[in-house]
Specification:
Blueprint lengths: L13 H45 L4 H19 L6 H15 L6 H15 L4 H14 L6 H20 L1
Helix pairs in contact: 4-5, 5-6
Length: about 170
């Protein structure tokens, strides 16, 4: 609380207000310094990403496709973070809500493969890349022999995704 001047009920002591502004100005300076460091670090990473994209393009991957893959990776990471801050009860409610929204997805071959992959992942912790690979593998295994074209497409997609994940 500020110290009022003697004899004045609504006046502020100039020394007190100057002290607060000096402290605030110092903190603003620290924030600007941190922001500059952060931006410099980000610049280096953005240049690295630009180089990686250039090499991908040179190797024949269309930049539009590569950028779409990168966006998907970022979105999947964001989706994985959604339930992370929920307590156990809310996490259960979240799962029930997804089940209600997705409907009978679990009854489809791809949904069963995802459930199997999740069960396998619960037995032994893996990296996100390994989880995705296991899910792709389980989804490909769930296809019937009549789906040879679909298996080839899944294989091509897995190879492309694998190549992209190696760049991370």
């Amino acid at each position: 609380m500020s110290e009022p001047n003697e004899g004045a009920s609504n006046a502020i002591n100039p020394k007190v207000i100057q002290g607060y502004f000096r402290l605030a100005r110092d903190k603003l300076g620290e924030l600007e310094s941190l922001k500059g460091t952060y931006m410099a670090d980000c610049k280096v990473l953005r240049e690295d990403l630009k180089d990686i994209k250039g090499r991908a393009k040179e190797s024949g991957i269309p930049l539009k496709v590569f950028n779409a893959g990168l966006k998907r990776i970022a979105l999947e990471a964001a989706i994985e973070k959604i339930p992370a801050n929920l307590d156990e009860d809310d996490a259960d409610l979240y799962d029930m809500t997804l089940d209600a929204v997705l409907g009978d997805y679990v009854g489809t071959p791809l949904g069963q493969a995802a459930v199997a992959a999740e069960a396998a992942n619960n037995d032994s912790p893996k990296t996100m890349g390994q989880k995705r690979a296991a899910a792709r593998s389980a989804a490909a295994d769930s296809l019937t022999e009549d789906d040879a074209d679909a298996k080839a497409a899944a294989s091509n997609a897995a190879a492309l995704t694998n190549g992209i994940s190696k760049l991370n």
